[in-house]
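User: Predict Nucleotidyl transferase domain-containing protein's structure from this.
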Amino acid sequence: MVKGAGYGTRLQRDLKASEEYNHLLGVPKALLPLGNRDALITHWVELFEAHGVTAENDIFVVTNGQCYESFKLWANLHRIPLNHIVSDGTETNETRLGAVPDILFGINHFELNQSDVLVVGGDTLFLHDFSLDNFLKNFDTNNDSCLVTAYQVPDQDVQKFGIIETDPQGIITSFLEKPDPSATKSRSACPCFYLFHHNAIPLIEEFVNMCKESNAPKEAYDATGKCLAYLYPRFQVSTFPISGRIDVGGLQSYIDANKYFEKK
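Assistant:
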């Protein structure tokens, strides 16, 4: 399930100020043309289909009301049923559900509650050496655990990411949201590429309900790492090392991502 319900406000500001790229104004991050593909998300679809994850049966997208029609047009080009694309009903960044509620919304809407669910951030891609085959084999081998990816970041970037600490077996023992580098020896960042074991799905709903019942601010559940921080003490979460990731945040990161994937 691809998470594409964000509004990309920073990127939209950058595009508005750019003469060269302002033709992309209003395009969701996941649908930005990237590396000789019509959209960033198409890279994931091609990778999934190469490993037996079919567009017709297994790929779902959660977006917002503002981007819904654009995702439907894209879906028609890639044989993805339109009922695999859903809007969360929001129309503005101010009224967004938040990252974790969107995950829960998609799981409930597509009736995936009894399934193992891979959640992918729609603004993220991995480097060319990523092996989805090895990732899935790892999950099958440790089938009583959720599985996430982790890669190493330099000291100066620790404060930009959610950082995980693990035991020698790679099982998460701590999650720190954008910590000071002095607060942990770990340099393992954990992007939104979460394979939830079906028995862990109820904990996502438990987390969202807890936040709402306590009137927690949106910041408490508007980053996927917040869910991971709630999950790991209650359900085993294992890690799969990767060499790095491409994250489209602002315009420069999009330009860099485009150059990287054009090289392939």
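Residues 201-213 form the longest helix (13 residues).
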